[in-house]
């Protein structure tokens, strides 16, 4: 088995070089991330972040509509009521908010209230079963 001997000064120098290499790697990773973000902006036709976020939220609202239509709260426990209320409350912040969204706002709030009442009932039943 080989044996390596070095002074504490030499060891500290190696550690310092390793730390410098790790810092350089972190800088290169950041540059790579920035380059990817720039590339993505070019690939999306330079579409602004606001437009992309609006599209993301619109797609998420489509998913929420589907869930509300197909997952009734009386048979689907664990509805994320607070998140649903937040979606309903913040729909009007969308740049593309329209009259259709105003109706959806009301529907989501009503559904969230219904889901919340079912969750309260379930919690009450669990407590009764524990006694």
Key terms:
mainly alpha, 76% helix, elongated
Summary, kept brief:
By secondary structure, the chain is mostly helical.
Question: Would you write up a description of this structure?
Answer:
The chain is mainly alpha-helical. It folds into two domains: 1-46; 48-131, no CATH class. Helix content is 76%, strand content 0%. The protein contains four helices and no strands. Helix 3 (81-90) packs antiparallel against helix 4 (99-130).
Topology:
Elements: H1 8-43, H2 49-70, H3 81-90, H4 99-130
Helix pairs in contact: 3-4
| Number of separate structural domains | 2
Estimate what percentage of residues fall within beta strands. Answer: under 5%
Q: From the alpha carbons, calculate the radius of gyration and give it in angstroms.
A: 27 Å
Biggest pleated sheet:
none
- Summing up helix and strand content along with how strands pair, one would put the structural category as mainly alpha
How many strand elements? 0
Mean pLDDT: 86
Q: Which regions contain 5 or more consecutive residues with pLDDT less than 50?
A: none
Q: What is the percent of helical residues? A: over 70%
How many H/I helical runs?
A: 4
Give the ordered list of helices and strands.
HHHH
Question: Which outline best applies?
Answer: elongated
How widely separated are the two ends?
68 Å
């Amino acid at each position: 088995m080989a044996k390596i001997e070095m002074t504490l000064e030499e060891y500290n120098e190696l550690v310092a070089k390793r730390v410098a290499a790790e810092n350089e790697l972190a800088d290169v990773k950041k540059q790579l991330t920035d380059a990817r973000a720039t590339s993505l902006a070019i690939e999306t036709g330079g579409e602004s972040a606001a437009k992309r976020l609006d599209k993301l939220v619109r797609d998420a609202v489509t998913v929420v509509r589907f869930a509300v239509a197909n997952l009734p709260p009386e048979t689907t426990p664990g509805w994320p009521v607070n998140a649903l209320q937040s979606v309903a409350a913040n729909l009007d912040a969308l740049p593309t908010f329209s009259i259709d969204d105003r109706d959806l706002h009301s529907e989501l709030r009503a559904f969230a209230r219904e889901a919340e009442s079912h969750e309260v009932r379930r919690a009450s039943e669990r407590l009764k079963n524990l006694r």
